[in-house]
Each structure stands twice: as structure tokens, then as C-alpha cells.
Write a structure and sequence with these properties.
The complex is a heterodimer. Chain A is an all-alpha fold. Chain A contains six helices and no strands. Chain A is globular. Chain B is built from three helices and no strands. In chain B, helix 1 (about 5-25) runs antiparallel to helix 2 and helix 2 (about 30-50) packs antiparallel against helix 3 (about 60-90). The chains are: A mainly alpha, B mainly alpha.
Chain lengths: ~160, ~100
């Protein structure tokens, strides 16, 4: 656990908490952007450069912008009257989930792996793997993205009045 | 504590935060943001296991995360389109008011 890793993790967790607790929706979306940048930093620190940069491009560049556009298009503020029992039960459930996960992680007894060095030549290996072993999933993901984009456009399209 | 355990704990914390947000907030967009956080926690797990696992040269974790990011982008696009479409019909994205299908 290096010091940059801990700093990035603290930023990520704090931004995630902010994204889930702030009042205004736009502030939540911006906190989500900070959280995703922190996660990209964690990926870079763990040696996955391609994934870190793809995270910045796809999440911060596209998904957060999409969320901001959706917030602007829907113009909805949450009402102030939160049911406190609802918040309490939600926090209790998530705390229980975290407790179980942390217990499972701590008691799992993972050992230090023998090859704790950074894997080298990651980018070339990713390209070769994508073009050889994982070429069918790659094509399927391309098809899925096309279908999802067409579907999103069709769903969000303004319904025409019947003007015949 | 080993680095792998640290990564897994951070990921578990991120997942719990996303789950708590998705359960407690009433805006549909915030629920979607919570789901994105949970998905990212899973991605962090994949990267951590790839980095500290026995066969990092196989690139399995990295490729899984790449496909997962692509699918998350598709999910966000369709989800936000649904929210915009629902807003156009019901004039709200407050989930406690969208109860017209409640039995």
C-alpha cells in the first residue's frame, strides 16, 4: 500500500460519499466525475494504464456528461421531506453489506503473490489478446453498443402527434 | 494488510456507498449514479485480482474491465434515455411518485 494509492483511495471514497449525499443533482454528478477520476488514478497506480485512460475517456468524458445532460433535461429537485426511516434502513443495509464483505476479505487469508512486480508490455498484450483470443466478444460488444445507441435514440425520441 | 486486501476493502466500501445511495435517494438519476458506483467497485476488484493474482500475463482482468466499461456505457445511455422518456410522461423523476404500476 503506497502513499499515492492511499491518497487516491481517500479522494475516491470521499467523492463517492459526496456524490451520494449532496442535495443538488448537478453537484452529485460533478462529485461522481471526481470519484471516477480517482478510480482511474487507482487503475494507473495498479499498472493498468489502458484501463485507466479508457476510464477517463468513457466515464468522465461520456457518461458523466450524459448524466449532466439528463439532469438538465429533466429539471427535477428532490423534495426535502425525506423519510428518515427509509434513509436509516438503507444505511443499515449497506453497512451490513460492507461488514460482511470486509469480514470475508479480512478472513480470506490472501497471501502476497510471488510476482509482485508490475506486469510489463501491457498495451501490446491487450491488443494481441483483443484481436486473437477475444475477437468474438469484441464484435459482440460492438454490436451491443450499436443496438444500445439506436435503442436510446428511439426511446428518448419525441413522440410525434398523429398528424395524418 | 496485503495490498490485495486493501484494494478489496476499498472496493467493498465503494460498493456499499453506491448501494446505500441507490437505496436511499429518491431521484432516478441518483439511483443510476449509485449503480455506476457499484459497477466501478466491481471493476476495481477485477484490476486488483489481475495485478496481484497468479497469472498477470494472461490479461484476463484487464480485458474483463474493458468489456465491462463498454457495457456500462451502453447501460448508462439506455437508462438515461428511459429517465428522459419517463420524465416526459410523468413530469417527474422522483421514484416515490412513479407508482402508477404499484399493485
Amino acid at each position: 500500500m503506497s502513499v499515492p494509492f492511499l491518497i487516491l483511495a481517500a479522494i475516491t471514497i470521499a467523492a463517492a460519499v459526496a456524490a451520494m449525499t449532496l442535495r443538488k443533482l448537478v453537484h452529485c454528478a460533478l462529485a461522481l466525475a471526481v470519484c471516477l477520476v480517482g478510480l482511474a488514478g487507482l487503475y494507473l497506480d495498479l499498472g493498468a494504464e489502458f484501463v485507466g485512460l479508457a476510464q477517463v475517456l468513457v466515464y468522465v468524458g461520456a457518461v458523466v456528461i450524459l448524466i449532466v445532460f439528463a439532469i438538465l433535461l429533466t429539471r427535477s429537485d428532490e423534495h426535502q421531506s425525506h423519510g428518515s426511516s427509509r434513509i436509516l434502513s438503507g444505511v443499515a443495509v449497506s453497512a451490513c453489506v460492507f461488514g460482511v464483505l470486509a469480514w470475508a476479505v479480512v478472513t480470506s487469508g490472501t497471501k502476497e503473490s510471488p510476482n509482485a512486480m508490475l506486469p510489463q508490455g501491457a498495451m501490446k498484450q491487450i491488443g494481441v489478446a483483443l484481436m486473437q483470443r477475444y475477437v468474438l466478444p469484441l464484435e459482440i460488444v460492438g454490436l451491443l453498443l450499436t443496438a444500445a445507441l439506436i435503442g436510446a435514440v428511439v426511446i428518448a425520441m419525441e413522440e410525434k402527434q398523429n398528424t395524418k | 494488510m496485503t495490498p490485495l486486501n486493501g484494494c478489496l476493502l476499498i472496493s467493498a466500501l465503494l460498493f456499499s456507498i453506491g448501494l446505500g445511495g441507490a437505496l436511499t435517494r429518491r431521484s432516478a438519476i441518483l439511483v443510476l449514479i449509485g449503480i455506476e458506483l457499484m459497477l466501478n467497485a466491481a471493476n476495481l476488484n477485477f484490476i486488483a485480482f489481475w495485478r496481484y493474482g497468479p497469472h498477470p500475463e494472461a490479461m484476463t482482468g484487464v480485458l474483463f474491465v474493458i468489456f465491462s466499461i463498454a457495457i456500462a456505457a451502453a447501460e448508462a445511455a439506455v437508462g438515461l434515455a428511459l429517465i428522459v422518456s419517463i420524465y416526459r410522461h410523468a413530469k417527474t423523476t422522483d421514484l416515490s411518485r412513479l407508482d402508477s404500476m404499484k399493485g
